[in-house]
């Protein structure tokens, strides 16, 4: 029997690695040997469904299983329809978060034969055994129920058994535990399970050594709260420092479990932390079974800041009980802690979550189909959601993509504007000024802000600061460590070499720079030589 397990990724990246299907393939190889020939297939949401279907059919499968999530449900069902049309006898099934949360909705599609909800390792072994015994596929639809794997000790590692080679992808997804100790209403992670179960440390150590041996650049840790068990988290961080010091790790953590020792352990490795703030208002968060202590949050983030650990925050707009102004305040609170990035999302009322069960009582209107976005509430109108979306777009384009950490606060101080105001204005600016390169768009926006205040000279200094950091980032990114020059000379009113020197010496204010860096029009070429940035006046 031939089985294809399909992973449909958002886009090509080191994160686009089919860990879930590979884990199932490993289990099936151990259970059935050569009786089931399993193949893992990668696909992408932007690919034509026909091309994906053709690639799947090229292996002549008898069965096809899909990992279904919110972002790929439509693509999955489109491919499934093509597979059934081309080969009516083929057996199709789905697993993953979306199929688990809305099993009935997925089974309503005529192409789908059954769903394997929840954790799939034990379920897929039993499902394949039944099919090999001759059970009709339709009987599996009524049999399969979520069944968490209680003991993770005996689960094979698709990395260690060769099913999945992270070196082929440039990155790895790394599972250290399953389950979540929290019950946030908007999240599906903890539904149907209680507590957490951990991968044995011996396997963790062996996988780390494999990542290092294959030269993996990035590892994305899948645990929703990596640092919940503080002792184990610190143990893993010490292992990383010892076994994979050259690899960059991405963690999701909760601020309340941070301490000074843990901050130091994070600082000793290459890593980035993502912290789910969601809102800076405790009364809003209590509506979704969370709580918030701003003083404790600030104190814990200060530990990371002092240790030099890169961190970012998540915010959600449209939460029950929140308002547009309340969301703006959350943005300002988050930005006051100087994150490396701020990811802002519109609330989605996902099937299977407690929020989906309570949405009617909260008067949350939301889309009935993926991506299930909230459409309005008594405190957050559709118009307010649209405006919040502008803030989110402005934040991403200006702060995240613009890598604005070194200069954002410097420019805001003389403008006397809140971060949320600037992001909102930039989101609007993008709607009417789509032309130009990203750097020039940001320069034009800030030039307009300073000119509106009648301070053109300070504005010219501001846009030179943006250009200086922007072109430096572009040159470093394009170089790959080799010599690489910018596309051509860049015009400046202030010598960027002097700007860089003053900022590196500790200058933090734009007005301070205005006194120490006189106007000196020049054209500068940005180069990278042996990994070092070189600025040359031409």
Summarize this entry quickly:
The protein is an alpha/beta fold.
Task: Please give a handful of descriptors for the protein shown.
single chain; 538 residues; alpha/beta; Rossmann fold; TIM Barrel; 6-stranded parallel beta sheet; 5-stranded parallel beta sheet; 19 strands; Methyltransferase_Class_B; cobalamin binding
Descriptive notes:
- The chain has 538 residues and is α/β, with parallel strands linked by helices.
- Helices cover 44% and strands 17% of the residues.
- It contains 21 helices and 19 strands.
- It has helices at residues 19-32, 49-57, 73-86, 97-101, 103-107, 121-132, 137-143, 201-213, 230-243, 260-267, 282-285, 294-307, 324-335, 354-362, 382-400, 408-415, 419-432, 438-452, 456-479, 496-504, 510-516, and strands spanning 2-9, 37-44, 63-67, 91-95, 114-115, 171-174, 177-178, 197-198, 218-221, 248-253, 270-278, 311-317, 341-346, 365-366, 374-376, 484-485, 490-492, 522-529, 532-537.
- The strands form five sheets. Strands 6-9-10-11-12-13 form a six-stranded parallel beta sheet. A five-stranded parallel beta sheet has the order 2-1-3-4-5, with helices on both faces.
- Helix 2 crosses helix 3.
- It is globular, with a radius of gyration of 26 Å.
- The mean pLDDT is 93.
- One of its GO terms (molecular function) is cobalamin binding.
């Amino acid at each position: 029997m031939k089985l294809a397990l399909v992973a449909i990724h958002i886009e090509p990246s080191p994160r686009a690695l089919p860990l879930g299907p590979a884990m199932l393939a490993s289990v099936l190889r151990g259970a059935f040997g050569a009786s089931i020939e399993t193949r893992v297939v990668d696909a992408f949401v932007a690919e034509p469904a026909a091309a994906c279907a053709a690639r799947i059919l090229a292996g002549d499968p008898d069965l096809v299983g899909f990992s279904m999530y919110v972002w790929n449900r439509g693509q999955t069902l489109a491919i499934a329809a093509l597979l059934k049309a081309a080969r009516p006898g083929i057996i199709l099934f789905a697993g993953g978060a979306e199929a688990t949360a809305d099993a009935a909705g997925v089974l309503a599609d005529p192409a789908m034969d059954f769903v394997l909800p929840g954790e799939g390792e034990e379920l897929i072994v039993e499902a394949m055994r039944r099919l090999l015994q001759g059970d009709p596929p339709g009987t599996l639809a009524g049999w399969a129920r979520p069944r968490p794997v209680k003991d993770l000790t005996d689960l094979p590692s698709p990395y260690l058994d060769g099913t999945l080679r992270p070196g082929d992808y440039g990155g790895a997804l790394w599972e250290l535990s399953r389950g979540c100790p929290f019950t946030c209403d908007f999240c599906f992670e903890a539904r149907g399970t209680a507590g957490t179960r951990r991968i044995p440390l011996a396997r963790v150590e062996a996988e780390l050594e494999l990542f290092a041996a294959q030269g993996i650049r990035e590892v994305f840790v899948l645990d929703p709260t990596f640092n919940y068990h503080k002792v184990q988290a610190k143990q893993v961080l010490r292992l990383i420092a010892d076994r994979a010091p050259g690899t960059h790790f991405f963690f999701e953590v909760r601020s309340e479990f941070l301490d000074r020792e843990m901050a130091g352990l994070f600082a000793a490795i290459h890593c980035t932390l993502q912290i789910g703030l969601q809102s800076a208002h405790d009364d809003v968060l209590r509506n979704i079974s969370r709580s918030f202590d701003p003083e404790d949050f600030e104190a814990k983030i200060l530990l990371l800041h002092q240790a030099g650990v890169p961190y970012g925050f998540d915010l959600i707009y449209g939460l029950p009980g929140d308002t547009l102004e309340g969301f703006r305040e959350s943005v300002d609170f988050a930005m006051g802690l100087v994150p490396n990035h701020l990811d802002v999302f519109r609330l989605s009322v996902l099937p299977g979550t407690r929020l989906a069960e309570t949405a009617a009582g909260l008067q949350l209107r939301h889309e009935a189909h993926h991506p299930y976005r909230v459409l309005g509430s008594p405190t957050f109108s559709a118009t307010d959601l649209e405006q919040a979306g502008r803030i989110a777009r402005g934040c991403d384009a200006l702060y995240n993509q613009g890598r604005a950490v070194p200069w954002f606060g410097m420019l805001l101080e003389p403008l006397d504007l809140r971060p949320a105001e600037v992001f909102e204005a930039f989101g609007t600016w993008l709607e009417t000024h789509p032309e130009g390169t990203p750097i020039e768009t940001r320069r034009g926006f800030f030039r307009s802000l300073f000119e509106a205040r009648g301070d053109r000279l300070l504005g010219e200094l501001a846009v030179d600061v943006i250009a200086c950091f922007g072109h430096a980032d572009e040159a470093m990114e394009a170089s790959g460590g080799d010599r690489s020059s910018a596309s051509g000379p860049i015009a400046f009113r202030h010598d960027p070499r002097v700007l860089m020197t003053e900022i590196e010496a500790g200058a933090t204010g734009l007005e301070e720079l205005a006194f120490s860096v006189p106007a000196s029009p020049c054209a500068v070429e940005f180069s990278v030589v042996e990994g070092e940035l070189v600025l040359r006046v031409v």
